[in-house]
Design goal:
- With 132 residues, the chain is an all-alpha fold.
- It has one domain.
- The longest helix is centred in the middle third of the chain and has 41 residues.
Length: 132
């Protein structure tokens, strides 16, 4: 048995219900798992309000953790795209015309600023981040 407080189960859902949950979770910026867990916790709390208060609180914490993981993933993705653009521009710089070089240099400066800002944001919420 694992030390984790969570357990995995398999559930069969109607395709339309699954799609609805997927869309609702995406609108909220959370995973389908977080959406389903929150709704189940609320349902249990409705049936047994006194016995399930702890469950709602625990589910809310889990939802906040999932939201933070989602923000971390988004920032890492954004940083990766900016690094890719930066690398591409650096490769193109040497063969570009003088006018194009000026535009590339301007964009590189903007990217450097954005990379620094986003790296700082990521560092503030993800202690494992070691970039820049």
């Amino acid at each position: 048995m694992t030390d984790s407080p969570t357990r995995s189960i398999t559930v069969r859902l109607d395709a339309d219900l699954l799609q609805a949950i997927r869309e609702i979770a995406a609108k909220k910026g959370q995973s389908m798992n977080a959406e389903i867990a929150q709704r189940l916790a609320e349902s249990v709390a409705d049936d047994e309000p006194d016995d399930a208060k702890w469950l709602l609180k625990k589910s809310k914490v889990s939802q906040e953790e999932q939201s933070e993981r989602s923000r971390i993933g988004e920032l890492r993705s954004r940083l990766g795209k900016m690094e890719w653009e930066r690398s591409t521009l650096l490769l193109e710089l040497g063969g570009a015309t003088k006018f194009a070089q000026g535009l590339i240099i301007k964009r590189l400066a903007e990217l450097e600023d954005a990379l620094d800002r986003n790296s700082e944001k990521l560092r503030s919420i993800d202690p494992t981040y070691t970039g820049r």
